[in-house]
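We emphasize that the prediction below concerns an isolated chain of 253 residues; any contacts that depend on oligomerization or on bound cofactors are therefore not represented. The input was used exactly as deposited, without trimming of termini.
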Amino acid sequence: MKNTTIRIAFIVAIFSVLSGCASQVKPAQDSGYLTGSEILQENRERFPFQKVWVNQETDKDYQSYKKIYVAPVNTSYLDNMEWFKMLSEDGMTAIHNEADRLAVYLQNRLIYELENSQGADFTVIKTKKNIDSDTAILEFALVELIPSPAQVNRFTSVAGFFIPFLGTASSLVVEDGSIAIEAKMTNYTGEESLLLFADREEDKSAILVDVNDLGYFKHAEKHIETWAYQYALLLSTDMEVQIKDQGFKLKPW
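Result of the prediction step, given as a token string:
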């Protein structure tokens, strides 16, 4: 019983550190994905993201929509990362493959959180042809993706496991792994923005790395799960409710 208590206290302490670090992470540079991104500002009283903008003048605000079309996630802006440009061709291919996998994971996770929200009943529109005037469009872009050094160090000790980009960019893979997103929610035509937000998270959880997992970006999946959960909360809670930047989401899939 004593050992169990110690383990629980240890886990709580680790996640407390993660939550405390979340607000200290520097925002990513604007990628150009969001037009007029200079209007985004921090609003921690309501939003868990580093930068956000809400359309206050629309007849139908972002919370009024219960039908959501979740578009495929854009990964093209990752090509603008400075360290990415230094990779070998194999390295670029490896990162693109991981980014495509994470893009699908993010889209599916958003759909899952909306369909399983306990705060409101949402209908996820699966195809563009079913979008109507009662539908809002949600679009995400991955704008930064850097592998965790804790994982890179671990993987290099695995016999026969080759990391394509390590030889050409090892000097750049020294900071905390990170992932950043920019997102916009618009009306059904895509012409009126309802909600814009951007966020960046770092991985400081070396002690939580699963030694059986050989993915480059396991930390990114955790942040994706949290973003999807937070987005569903924003759509299903009163504007007075603060959605905190809680670090990793503990709720299972």
